[in-house]
Fold this sequence. Notes:
Elements: H1 5-13, E1 24-27, E2 32-34, E3 48-51, H2 54-59, E4 63-64, H3 77-81, H4 85-94, H5 97-110, H6 114-125, H7 129-147, H8 152-158, H9 164-175, H10 179-185, E5 197-203, H11 210-219, E6 226-229, E7 232-239, E8 242-251, E9 254-261, H12 267-278, H13 284-292, H14 295-303, H15 315-324, H16 330-343, E10 353-355, E11 358-360, H17 379-383, H18 394-409, H19 420-428, H20 435-444, H21 457-465, H22 472-478, H23 486-496
Parallel strand pairs: 2-4
Antiparallel strand pairs: 1-2, 1-3, 5-9, 6-7, 7-8, 8-9, 10-11
Helix pairs in contact: 4-5, 4-7, 7-9, 8-9, 15-18, 15-20, 19-20, 21-23
Pfam families: Ada_Zn_binding, AlkA_N, HTH_18
Cofactor: Zn(2+)
Catalytic activity: Hydrolysis of alkylated DNA, releasing 3-methyladenine, 3-methylguanine, 7-methylguanine and 7-methyladenine
Amino acid sequence: xxxxxxxxxxxxxxxxxxxxxxxxxxxxxxxxxxxxxxxxxxxxxxxxxxxxxxxxxxxxxxxxxxxxxxxxxxxxxxxxxxxxxxxxxxxxxxxxxxxxxxxxxxxxxxxxxxxxxxxxxxxxxxxxxxxxxxxxxxxxxxxxxxxxxxxxxxxxxxxxxxxxxxxxxxxxxxxxxxxxxxxxxxxxxxxxxxxxxxxxxxxxxxxxxxxxxxxxxxxxxxxxxxxxxxxxxxxxxxxxxxxxxxxxxxxxxxxxxxxxxxxxxxxxxxxxxxxxxxxxxxxxxxxxxxxxxxxxxxxxxxxxxxxxxxxxxxxxxxxxxxxxxxxxxxxxxxxxxxxxxxxxxxxxxxxxxxxxxxxxxxxxxxxxxxxxxxxxxxxxxxxxxxxxxxxxxxxxxxxxxxxxxxxxxxxxxxxxxxxxxxxxxxxxxxxxxxxxxxxxxxxxxxxxxxxxxxxxxxxxxxxxxxxxxxxxxxxxxxxxxxxxxxxxxxxxxxxxx
Length: 497
């Protein structure tokens, strides 16, 4: 990945927060690397190097700045939206695939040899898959050290390290201090919520229109799985190693996330899925500038800057919602999905009692005041449901089952690393799934930023409200000026409707 020195240096000199996560600043005279917005004195040109990833900076022998914490910067919007192999690989690494399946597992998921995958990642990010996963493990370890009372050995294995020695060496190399010193630097703050509960900040690039995100999620919230209450989105998750519950509260400059995990190894996947759900790695200024160039959208963008694309914590869930929502209202689709959830018993998350007002996940057998939120159904579970569980016509029921079987077998990959073009082709090959459904899945499950749904009734109503063409073909032609952010235009049209 080529980084223009002058442009990067200007961003550092102006402490431009928009570039956090796009690149990292290495200061050779101090041996540290920072985010562009670091408040420290601007380093001299001759002492600066720029890196496309934190892993690349660490590979050059630099440690993370203790002041700006570059390891906690938002992810690069480039890797968040790119549909090529590198973008897919970065999303899978963030979801913990290397920690669970190793580099061979990552390469298999992407359909490339390990050697070729390593070469591509090195060329674009300055680091291979192991180095990228190691950088993520270091950040996970720091979060656990600073926000939990777990012992260092427990943290080492929860963060994905193979040994305590590897954990100690990595923390010393990346942060320039011993793990125990990181805990001391926390200042003796108490660990909120007891064992299994972590509270942290999820950074984003401003602006963030939090109300639009919460409105969208609240309208579609499924009882027992998710709810929006007092400005906070609560959600049950089914993660690789167990159940979890998250509470996400938008705030100035960050989203406060309280994660209640049955297994600490799920911290990195939980954070990745929360960031993806709220689209926190987007570049809202670039998106809004493109959309505001259209006079029909200019007023809406000015009135509501920072509209995000609500995504999904589970690709199959987004696809099932899309199929169930075909030609019915959001309320009707919600009723049908609630019936499905009721018909399929799912193990409840281990929510047992409250400590300091927070639910503790680590003490089974104790009474609790309210049941925890559970995760959504898995594809294999939906495929096995009886006919009575489906409150829909027989044709749509068979479409749901065909989709569930295809996802369960791996024929359709709806994970963050799925190939968007291949997924679209395979989805539309399923009887009962057309371009609208496949496009909706591409938007919410795969995070495609450039999907238009011109035949969608709400999109056409929103277009009419903004003085845009309502004929699908004419609207499609007009929307060419919105590329590559047409998915964000769809969200704005839905809000206008």
